[in-house]
Amino acid sequence: MTPTHTPENHSHHDWPAVLPHEADHAWAALSLHHVTDPARVLTQTFETLRLGGVLVATEVAGVTKYNPVDLGTGRAGLGERIVGALAAHGYPVTADWTIALAEAGFAPVERHASTFTASARNTDGSRYLALQLTLSRARLAEDLSADDLTALDAAITALVAGTSEVVMTSERFSWVAVQPIATGPNQHDIGASGSSQGRTLVGP
Question: Cα separation of 26 and 6, whole Å?
């Protein structure tokens, strides 16, 4: 089993110092946009990874959609109004780290697009949707009408009870960035072997 370390990653914190030695992998899930100085964090991560180490980062990309749009409440357009109200507050946060990763020294940097789906038809999806809609309700208490808030409460109750069939989809970008191993002038070998006993860094 590969040990995993999860440092508390703030831009002012010397988090690489808590690692016992170089890391094989780093993982940043929907989190880089939260740090005060992403460029510094990416440079620190680059310096923390061993040669050939890999950073994987993900961010939301694109609009969230709910099916059915009424979230199963009969309140027409409820999901669209939630998405629109959140967008007015800057949610979800989107970011493109391709250039920043290259500037930090990673090579190659690959960006992949994918679709994220959460379905209330399974326990994990239902729990995720209930949490997300609960957070959305807290953010939008002053933005939605009383009828919309009542319907949203009913949608959350159905999710918690396991009686909802709501499906949410959104787009994701994933970056796979390598700490290069030089094999010659302007060449990098991303397949070079390394210790299998390294550390995985989870964060920021």
Answer: 10
